[in-house]
Design goal:
- The chain is mainly alpha-helical.
- The protein has one domain: Up-down Bundle (Growth Hormone, Chain: A).
- Helices cover about 75% and strands about 0% of the residues.
- The longest helix has about 40 residues.
- It is globular.
- The N terminus is likely disordered.
Length: about 450
């Protein structure tokens, strides 16, 4: 139940139309908030991809040298997976804080924790220096990262969309999603440049630390931008009208279980396709199709550069026809190309590889760009931070299992070309059905009397 005021209650509950989004000051604030949100999601994405590449290349030899090669690789990827497992816990913690103390204050906490823990990995001693303490410290920092990530995405979306009127929120919800391609580009650039300027021994000795240490200046920029922004008009209204939930996480789960399931399904393609394309597909391209690792990184970077253009355009389109419809279009398109894309990839030419990364990236990007708008429109303000964080974190946990699931299917089918197509098609169907349901959702946006 919502907390009641001690004095005379207002006769009507304010809605989004009562909030002043169109003053010059409000518009300036919205632009500042977009930058703050974008840099935070960039750091989140950067953290994910840096650690993924690190786990694949360096982690097993630096932190698990006492194990045989296969066991060391399993140990390295287990540490990678741990952040996915603890994300829902972080979603509960920071979802509660976001709906109780505010979006801005919570995001300052999450970005600080994430930036410090990522940078600290670059300062860790290896197994050769401190023995078993090295992998234990690495795992601890990864747990801390996962907890902070559980609350970062939902807050980054809300700090942007709650600054503007509902009819413009499709675009503003898309802009934080630019952080994913930016994080991919920055990570790929580092792993392309560093081996070119450092010897293999230097990379193994100290060069691997540099990508993690980049998190410190990124954190400084993020804090500078987030300290300069104000709380969202919606949360201020929640405070003024004393409409905050005492236990927002429990309220979200108890009152809106179906909506949360729909939101999870809507998120699967946007998150899962990244996991599939940037992990399994790269491994498949190197091991089965015999591409050079650098070719895969270049192809991924080209696809990510294109997303810098398409994501804002898809956000503008979401303003016109609705975020849920954009997600559905992306899912339907991805379903159509899932099998043809992997069929042509087996012919193993670099232009086909680049085309696969572009086509296989653009259509799921429709679902990714409009995801924040779809999810923020499904939940009322008093429980929105909790609901978004829980739904997104559960979808991230499921998506984190996609490379392992796809690899197991490939092993069972002798790496048949259609194996990843099955996984991508299933993700597409689940997201398509969820988006169709979300498009018909009747909950009024920002009705403070109902949450």
């Amino acid at each position: 139940m919502t907390t009641q005021t001690s004095g005379k209650a207002p006769t009507t509950s304010p809605s989004a139309s009562d909030l002043d989004y169109n003053s010059p000051e409000a518009r300036r604030s919205a632009r500042k908030v977009v930058w703050a949100s974008f840099v935070g999601t960039s750091l989140e994405s950067f953290d994910f991809y840096v650690f993924a590449y690190f786990s694949a290349i360096f982690s097993s030899t630096l932190f698990f040298p006492e194990l045989d090669k296969a066991a060391a690789i399993i140990g390295a990827f287990s540490v990678l997976a741990v952040s996915f497992i603890v994300r829902p816990i972080g979603a509960i913690i920071f979802g509660y804080l976001g709906d109780r103390i505010g979006r801005r204050s919570t995001l300052l906490i999450t970005i600080t924790i994430m930036g410090l823990s990522t940078g600290a990995i670059g300062l860790l001693p290896s197994y050769a220096a401190i023995g078993i303490g090295a992998p234990l410290l690495l795992t601890l920092l990864r747990v801390i990262q996962g907890l902070s990530l559980g609350g970062e995405w939902g807050g980054s979306i809300l700090i942007a969309v709650e600054q503007v009127e509902p009819r413009r929120r499709g675009f503003y919800a898309a802009l934080p999603q630019l952080g994913s391609p930016v994080g991919t580009i920055l990570t790929a650039a580092l792993y392309l440049i560093l081996p070119a300027i450092l010897s293999a021994s230097d990379m193994a000795s100290w060069g691997w630390r540099l990508p993690f240490l980049v998190a410190f200046p990124l954190l400084a920029v993020s804090l500078y931008l987030r300290l300069a922004i104000d709380e969202t008009p919606l949360f201020k209204s929640l405070l003024v009208n004393n409409k905050r939930e005492r236990m927002p996480v429990l309220a979200a789960i108890r009152k809106h279980p179906v909506a949360i399931v729909v939101a999870i399904g809507a998120a699967l393609l946007g998150i899962g396709s990244y996991s599939l394309m940037n992990t399994y597909t790269i491994t498949y391209g190197v091991v089965t199709l015999h591409f050079a690792y650098q070719d895969l990184l270049i192809a991924t970077t080209i696809g990510s550069l294109l997303q810098l253009i398409t994501i804002p355009l898809f956000g503008l389109w979401a303003n016109r026809i609705g975020s849920a419809r954009i997600v559905a279009i992306g899912a339907a398109g991805t379903l159509l190309i899932a099998f043809p894309m992997y069929y042509f990839l087996q012919f193993a030419t670099f232009p086909i590889l680049v085309a696969t990364m572009i086509i296989g990236g653009i259509l799921p990007t429709l679902s990714w760009a409009a995801l924040g708008g779809l999810m923020s429109n499904m939940f009322g303000g008093p429980i929105r931070y909790s609901a978004l964080s829980i739904a997104y974190s559960i979808a991230a946990v499921i998506s984190g299992l996609i490379p392992l699931t796809t690899a197991a299917l490939a092993n069972a089918t002798s790496s048949a070309w259609w194996t990843p197509g099955i996984v991508l098609a299933i993700l597409s169907v689940l997201t398509l059905v969820s988006a169709i349901v979300a498009a018909r959702w009747k909950r009024p946006v920002d009705d403070l009397s109902a949450n």
